[in-house]
Amino acid sequence: MTSSSAHPDIYAGIHKALRRRLFSLCTQAGTTDGADAFAVEALAHAAEGVFASLRAHGEHEERFFHPLLARDGQVRASLDDAHVQHEAALSGLEQRLAQVSAESDAERRREWVQGFYLELCAFTGDFLLHLDEEERRAFPVLVAHCTADEVSEAHRALLAAMSPEERTRDLLSILEASSPDEAAFLLDVLARSGSA
Ligand SMILES: [Fe+2]
């Protein structure tokens, strides 16, 4: 979680983790047989976990980083809009999965799963652009308009607001998505802070 400036790169690790989980979910959706109730149940369970993480991540950003990003009103408005659109998209995806479970005809179930797969991939494409906007447009705003201490303090407050289970889940998913040097750095930070 370092950057070329003294500001902690609050987006890098968790965004890698979210990308990895979304790619994995897209693959699972694409390989699920809609007629297989157990496979659909597994897909729904996986989607529930990923969607919960996406929602929690967005809420954390809005609560702890968007107030700092308000120093550039255009960037903040753009990110706020994206979060609203993502929530609508996630609700739509959940409705599609519920339709699969409620359908008894095998071919119809396969059609619903294929529809879910296509919608999920489209959402993922849109979400990737959002992550890119945060990394390459919003982060420079934080660097330009906020001190490193302000950003660090907001990040500390975010971590303090998470439950131990949330922190553990995020840490594991960040480690899974990190390069070896990033993982070593993160583990070193945790060891020095007494958290690992
Ligand atoms: Fe975001």
Radius of gyration, whole Å: 18 Å
Largest sheet properties: none
Q: CATH homologous superfamily?
A: nmb1532 protein domain like
Q: CATH class, anyone?
A: Mainly Alpha
Task: Provide a count of the helices.
Answer: 7
Bound ligands, named by name, code or SMILES: fe (ii) ion
Mean pLDDT level: 93
Helical residue percent?
over 70%
Order of helices and strands: HHHHHHH
Describe this structure in words.
Helix 1 packs antiparallel against helix 2 and helix 2 runs antiparallel to helix 3. The chain contains 7 helices and no strands. The protein has one domain: nmb1532 protein domain like (Four Helix Bundle (Hemerythrin (Met), subunit A)). The protein has 196 residues and is an all-alpha fold. The mean pLDDT is 93. It is globular and about 60 Å long. It starts with 11 loop residues before the first helix and ends with a helix. The protein is 84% helix and 0% strand. Fe (ii) ion (FE2) binds next to helix 2, helix 3 and helix 4. Fe (ii) ion binds next to helix 2, helix 3 and helix 4.
